[in-house]
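(Fold this chain)
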Amino acid sequence: MIRLLQDLTGWRRGLVALLAGAVAALALPPVDLWPLLFLAVPAFLMVLGSVTSMRARFLLGWLFGLGYFIVALHWIGAAFFVDAATYLWMMPFAVGGLAAVAALYWGLAAALTGLIATRGLPQVLGFAAMLAVAEDLRGRLFTGFPWAVPGLAVDGMGPLAQTASLIGMTGLTLLIVLWAGLPLVLFETGAWRQRLAALGLLALMPLGLTFGMMRLAEPMGTDVAGVKLRLVQPNISQDEKWRADNARSIFDTLKTLSAEPGADGRPGIDSGAVVIWPESAVPFLIDESPVAKEELSRLLAGKATLITGAIRRDANKKDSDGEPLVYNSMITFNGAAQVVARYDKWRLVPGGEFLPFAWLLEPLGFRKVVIVPGSFATGPGPVTITVPGAPDAAMLICYEAIFPHDLIEPGKRPGWIINVTNDGWFGRSAGPYQHLAQARLRTIEQGLPVVRVANTGISAVIDSRGKILQSLAVGRQGVIDSGLPPAGEPTIYSRFGDWGLAGLVLLALAGAMPGRRRKRFG
């Protein structure tokens, strides 16, 4: 089989790369078939090692990435069915174009790997290092889009996910791709030293599992004293959510769910309770509505706090057309329905909340999916917010939870993270499950609990080691009443960020360099 793949030429070689990428994507949630990586990565490396030109290596890497991202990101297409008459024609351009652009990073990684080595352990080490660097860049350049990072496959790998507390999601990408490629070294004809080294590197996998089990076995402590949370999941379908004639019924649904008695018999609006509504919970400017604030005042009754996702505008700031700036925000109301804090989203969704290259795409008929009065503006960055009745919190709106870096305001570590989202765009597709998995990784990386409130699910309370304590499934309406899990100690990753990734890349490249010397001088 190895010789057969290495001898392929032309379109057959490209087809293997494309299919290998598609198979590799099945390692991601909700499928979680991560053992398939141990077939897909070696298959790709076999065909990659059979080409000599940098252009051919780039093309194979791009095809590998294209297959991966088409499968991993196919669920994005569901958003274009919400208003099919307006947006459906854009779907193949959006999904295919996004996959094609993301795959460019993988093409670059494959091309650079060929400069290091084309066979054996040096090739596996080189590709793992280059792909990790490429994925780190994908998460940072041009606003960044780190969705479907291969390291997310750890979601199905049990205690191994705890190594994210040391090296983060992209560090896990390097290790998982490295481990997946090592069977090629064991079964391909090669030096016994390489096989021995491959076995040693594979041994790091059970070592990571052991570390994870030990970390999970450590005592967590009790919930934060006196904190009572109510997470409200209204389950408003996306095609109903932004209709002006639904504003009253949506607002009433949220209020009713907030006030109804809990399963334990206690009132929903309890003394000191923190009630959380999802992203852009109501289809009107809630902080500008006297009627809404008067009704919230009666609901909160001076004894509860409400945190809600909301669209808000700032009349003191204007865009280039002279219109007030509009923000996707989280607004905190005290018991008297007074606004006591705001957080403005600063990482906006490309194609959703802003249109990249609008000067080129708008004349062709392309539009951003989320329509607001005016234009969405970006907030100032991560901010730790004071929450009445609870510890200070970091706030993430939807898409912001997929980024492993720049989550926390420097020097102001919070006691928890609040993540509100609206995954209603994506129905029952893979999207909400992948989004939840990324939120779980943030808890492990930061050592902080995440309280996630979604319009249509999946809402969840997640402890500081990524364990889901309570959740509401996709497509259900209801509430979660919970305490607040305690914050853990700051993790190595939260202290030092991606320096651990940099160290792993340097070690992998150092191990691969002998392959380069043999290629040049042997």
Q: What stands out?
A: The radius of gyration is 24 Å.
